[in-house]
Amino acid sequence: MPRPRSLTPDQLASAALAVLDREGLAGLSMRAVAKELGMSAMALYRYVDDREELEGLVVERVLSAVDTTPPEPGAPWDDRLRIMVGRLRDTIIAHPAVLPLTLTHRHRSPSGLRWSETALALLTEAGVDGERRVLALRALLGYVIGAIQLEHLGPLSGAGTVTIAELSADAFPYMAETARQARSVGVEREFFGGLEVFLRGLGG
User: Fold this and answer.
1) Residue 108 CB neighbour total at 10 angstroms
2) For 23-69, what is each residue's pLDDT tens digit?
3) What is the maximum span of the chain, computed from C-alpha positions, in angstroms?
4) What average pLDDT score do residues 110-138 get?
5) 3-state helix/strand/coil string of the chain
6) Do residues 84 and 122 lie in contact, with contact meaning Cβ atoms separated by under 8 Å?
7) Rounded mean pLDDT, 80-104
8) Rounded percentage of the chain residues whose pLDDT exceeds 90
9) 66 — alpha (psi -120 to 50), left (phi > 0) or beta?
10) Is residue 190 within 8 Å of 151, Cβ to Cβ?
11) Helices 77-92 and 51-63, axial angle in degrees (round to 10)
């Protein structure tokens, strides 16, 4: 197959992201990305050492679209943190298959590190420091990542909620009732409602 003379890291990442978007994480391989680029798998190794390096390029490609600049000062810290979380969510939900990779490559992505740096500055502004700040950032990232995964793998509007709503009220009274209520909760309300619970606890 014909091969481009040279490829930039962004071109490599864009090809890998196209594979991820189309085939999911299980479909990402050196061979699949090479095919996307119109080259042999062996030729791709001239540009990256292995799949791990390719994954890192994809994570940075996605997270580089997140605006990591601090929101305008003057607003309460929690409003500014909501803005930062919203920016991250908007970017990741466009490419949900990349989400697991953001965990394994979080320390290698300059854009991801800049987002966390801004979030930490806002937490510090709120008086959260020391070990509490460590736990707060970890919990915040855990919430964002987990909530996005739930939104795509087990949405409240999905078949799983319907099944739970039909459980025996004798055996699972709270689960059945909660599932019936959950079916009317939209994705935006689900995500930001959960974030509100987290922020209220943090501010207490």
Assistant:
1) 15
2) 999 999 999 999 999 999 999 999 999 999 999 999 999 999 999 99
3) 68
4) 96
5) CCCCCCCCHHHHHHHHHHHHHHHCHHHCCHHHHHHHHCCCHHHHCCCCCCHHHHHHHHHHHHHCCCCCCCCCECECHHHHHHHHHHHHHHHHCCCHHHHHHHHHCCCCCHHHHHHHHHHHHHHHHCCCCHHHHHHHHHHHHHHHHHHHHHHHHCCCCCHHHHHHHCCCCCCCHHHHHHHHHHCCCCHHHHHHHHHHHHHHHHHC
6) yes
7) 95
8) 85
9) beta
10) yes
11) 130
pTM: 0.88
| Pairwise CA distance, residues 43 & 120, whole Å | 42
How many other CB atoms sit within 10 Å of the CB of residue 104? 12
CA–centroid distance for 79 within its chain: 20
What's the token pair of residue 120?
């930490």
Phi-psi region of 168 (alpha: psi -120 to 50; beta: other; left: phi over 0): beta
User: Which amino acid makes up residue 76?
Assistant: P
Query: Which residue in the block uniquely carries the two structure tokens 């890291």?
Result: 9
* Token duo for residue 157: 């509007």
- The token pair that represents 192 in the structure block: 């930001």
Instruction: Kindly state the tokens that stand for 180.
Output: 């019936």
Q: Show Cβ contacts of residue 150 under 8 Å, excluding neighbours closer than 6 positions.
A: 190
